[in-house]
Amino acid sequence: MQATGGNPETIHFEQTERVERSVGRSIKRGLLNACPACGSGRLFGRFLKAVPSCASCGEQLDRHAADDFPPYIVVTIMGHLVIAGFMAMEMILPLSNWGHLAIWVPITILGSLALLQPVKGGVIGLQWALRMHGFGDHEDKPEDILPTGDPAA
Prior knowledge:
Elements: E1 3-4, E2 12-13, H1 23-31, H2 69-92, H3 97-129
Antiparallel strand pairs: 1-2
Helix pairs in contact: 1-3, 2-3
């Protein structure tokens, strides 16, 4: 058994050479709407629709399974920003409920729409770097299989 790996701190006991994928760099490229593999091709063809494959390097990008994770992140970020802004404005300039609605509803909607695509790109970059959901050389299957129930019980 031979240890392989490019980084002296990372040791892989495998028969094949496995290229390391930087998580931070991949997330950053995804946030910037670039291919997480090469950084030069576009990640999205439409607002939230990933391109089938990168035009520069050919990496297949439509296998991701971002699902509901990007909206959860956006809701968390916008919730903190809007609540902090609301509370700060209430301390400085007390407004009526209608005044706050006129300010904070548009900020929430526009901020959420502005954050959704970069956050989804970051999640796709994370999945690519960690070889999740079709980006690796293995089939996606559950990590833990629950035991079947006892038929005698």
